[in-house]
Amino acid sequence: MAVTDAAIDRIKEMIVSGELAPGAxxxxxxxxxxxxxxxxxxxxxxxxxxxxxxxLDVRQGDGTYVTSxxxxxxxxxxxxxxxxxxxxxxxEFFQVRRILEPSATGLAAVHMDDAAVRELxxxxxxxxxxxxxxxxxxxxLRFHRRIAEGSGNAVLAALLESLSxxxxxxxxxxxxxxxxxxxxxxxxxTAIYTAIASRQxxxxxxxxxxxxxxxxEWLRRPT
Length: 223
Prior knowledge:
By secondary structure, the chain is mainly alpha-helical.
């Protein structure tokens, strides 16, 4: 494993230094192994590991390429992990969301253009009057994703997407529908939207904190 780790580090150095740019094709396996002083088996293991975390893209019959390295792509693995966690760990993910979500919402109030604000209003209006748990989860995901995208910070948006993906939201909302959550969701989303639309970042941050903390409070209740 130590040899594979060394191979990963060597490829990482080539990417970080700019020798291999996003979208660049890696040299042929034999040439790259010789150049890096590695066995071809070690190089293959390193490439496989980097492909799993979306740093490299192995295209059969074509070659191996550096991906776009966009934050959303690289943080996919975190989303995968988040979807598997339950109980206390899910609560910890929400605690992180409570830190990051208000910041993204405040930034959105400053940076979202009028067209994006209208999109946010349209998402609000798409929630049915008597939504199912699936409706709530899907609408909540789209609403917060649009806000995160509107923050103007791609890393922050990717982190938030990873921390609470569709599977995590579905589990939470299935429980919350038993507790009259639909009305609160609509009320709080509307308040967040209004603050963003009126360009009030402090108010937007406050409502986002209330919204995420409310879900966190529910998760803390004994079952």
